[in-house]
Amino acid sequence: MKIAEVSKRYGVSTDTLRYYERIGLLRHVPRNKSGIRDYDEASCNAVEFVKCMRDAGMSIESLVEYMELLEQGDETTAARKELLLRQGDEIRERIAGLERALARLEYKIEHYDEVMTATERTLRAGE
């Protein structure tokens, strides 16, 4: 699959895909005889994983570390798991913060509903 197709499929710009390859997030992307990238299933799976982790807020540095560990093989399984566990903790913290923000927002909306209702009653009473 050509880079433009991968870009469209995963919603990642071609520049970003090239950058990810350059910094080691996407390793071993096959090329055809002309030197043009020809993403195979494994490369597409890597793109999907990197995109998912970036969408989840994982830093480029952590992703590079993860991919380096992955490249080293099974002896790094525990380290990779620990890295993903830390990422999960960070996501849970962000979710908790968003839930607090949502609760505050809903409180303010309810407050304005009450203010608007009281204002309407006042206006009707003065007619």
Describe the protein's architecture and organization:
This protein is mostly helical and 127 residues long. It has a single domain, classed as Multidrug-efflux Transporter Regulator, Chain: A, Domain 2, CATH 1.10.1660. It is built from five helices and no strands. Helix 4 packs antiparallel against helix 5. The longest helix has 49 residues. The mean pLDDT is 94.
Describe the structure in brief.
The chain is an all-alpha fold and 127 residues long. The chain has five helices and no strands.
Features:
Multidrug-efflux Transporter Regulator, Chain: A, Domain 2, 5 helices, mainly alpha, single chain, 127 residues
Total E-strand runs? 0
Tell me the helix content: over 70%
CATH top-level class: Mainly Alpha
Report the CATH architecture. Answer: Orthogonal Bundle
The arrangement of helices and strands along the chain is HHHHH
> How many independent structural domains?
1
Query: Strand content of the residues, in percent?
Result: under 5%
Assign the structural class, choosing from mainly alpha, mainly beta, alpha/beta, alpha+beta, or little secondary structure. Answer: mainly alpha
> pLDDT average, as an integer?
94
The CATH topology assignment is Multidrug-efflux Transporter Regulator, Chain: A, Domain 2
Low-pLDDT runs of 5+ residues are none
CA distance, first residue to last residue: 71 Å
Protein name: MerR family transcriptional regulator
Keywords: Coiled coil, DNA-binding
GO molecular function: DNA binding; DNA-binding transcription factor activity
Coiled coil: 81-115
